[in-house]
Each structure stands twice: as C-alpha cells, then as structure tokens.
Amino acid sequence: MDGKQSAGDCRAIRAFQRKHGVEPADGTAGPATWARMRALSARETPHERRERHERHDPQTGYKSHKGNKSHRGNEGHKGRKQVLRGCPVRSYRVACVDLTRKRTWVQQRGRILYGPVPMRSGSVRHPTRTGWFRIYLRNRNHWSTLYNSPMPYAQFFSGGQAFHAVRGSIRTVGGSMGCVNLRLADARGLWKVLRKGDRVYVWGRRPRR
C-alpha cells in the first residue's frame, strides 16, 4: 500500500458508489462510501445465517421467503412477489417507510410495485412521524414557503411531512426537517406509482449515524 489512489482504484470505487447509490459517485472513498461499506459488511449476522428458511437480498438488506425470487432495481420489476419485513400486507397500495434501514417502497397484496430505494428521514430534533397516514396532497413542483426551497414531486402524508426529491446527496449525517427525502429519479418513480388517498406506513427509528 503506497497510500495513493490509482485510476483503477477510482474506477472500482465509482462502480461501487453507483451500484449502492452513494452520492456523489466521484470515485473518491469519502465518509459516505466508507459508511456504506461498513453497513454492507455488518449486514449479515450469525443469527441471520441460521435462518435457513429465508433468503437475504444483499441489494435491499431485506429478506424474502424461499420460493419468492428476489430482484434488483425498481421499476424494471414491478409486481414481483416478495415479502419485506415490517410493512403490513394489505389489498390496497401502501407506501412503506422503514426508518431503521432508511428505505422506502410501495407494495400491494405482498407484491412490490416500486423500490426499495434509499431515503433520508427526519433528524432527531425533527423526526418523521410513525404510524398510518394517507397522501392528501400532491404537487409536482411544490415550493416550500417555510424553508424557501423547492420540493420536487412532493406527496404530503402527515401535516407538512412529505415524500419529495432533494438536490445533492441524501446520505448525510444529519436528517431532514421531517420529510422523506429521495433522489430525484426515485421521487419521480414514486410519483408515478402513488395516487392521492394512498396509504403510508412509517415505522422504525432513524439511526443516529
């Protein structure tokens, strides 16, 4: 080890960042990249390895029952059969928000319609509220008068808390002001799947790191 980063190192790091949604994907092993690597290496525990009746999906961090093929990506595999822990299965569409794993997806009758995709939830001082909600307002080009900032593809579900896109990285140490922040492409994809009146279920607890 010479302590220097070669062009080959940059390409390998950039490929890892793109695969795992680390932004910016600039080929530099910064704090966000190292945090993602540590999370991946710590994901499987001895207890999880003993659970032979379940299959672990390394892309999402969730488990699916044997017999249910696990897929990667989101919109390319709409309607796949997969059971992700934590979110109740209902006959109607449910937007699931897992604060602990920092993921969101949409499911219906046990089928994944969209996601899972990474998200950023509220900070310790401004937590994203947990429980059942409904999407009551949608605005593709919403502008927050409170924070004087854009909220693209905003879908409000609890007071001023909403799904919406943000510019820049969502993998930051601090959280949002309570909203569920998404990358632009993911917020656009979620917008296409959900409708006004759809249910939202939020659970878990945002990690402090």
List keywords for this structure.
four-stranded mixed beta sheet, alpha+beta, six-stranded mixed beta sheet, 209 residues
Shape: globular
Average pLDDT, all residues: 77
Widest beta sheet: strand line-up: 3-6-5-4-12-7
Order of helices and strands: HHHEEEEEEEEEEEHE
Distance between the termini: 29 Å
Largest sheet: 6 strands, mixed
Bin the strand percentage. Answer: 25-35%
Instruction: Kindly state the number of beta strands.
Output: 12
Coarse structural class: alpha+beta
Q: Total helix count?
A: 4
Low-confidence stretches: 42-56, 64-77
Rg value: 18 Å
Helical fraction equals: 10-25%
Structural write-up:
- By secondary structure, the protein is α+β, with helices and mostly antiparallel strands.
- The chain contains four helices and twelve strands.
- The strands form three sheets. The chain has a six-stranded mixed β-sheet.
- The protein is globular and about 50 Å long.
- The two termini are 29 Å apart.
Brief digest:
The chain is built from four helices and twelve strands. By secondary structure, the chain is an alpha+beta fold. It is globular, with a radius of gyration of 18 Å.
Write the layout of secondary structure elements.
Layout: H1 7-20, H2 31-41, H3 46-50, E1 54-56, E2 63-65, E3 80-81, E4 94-98, E5 103-108, E6 111-118, E7 131-134, E8 137-144, E9 149-158, E10 161-165, E11 180-182, H4 184-193, E12 199-203
Parallel strand pairs: 4-12, 10-11
Antiparallel strand pairs: 1-2, 3-6, 4-5, 5-6, 7-12, 8-9, 9-10
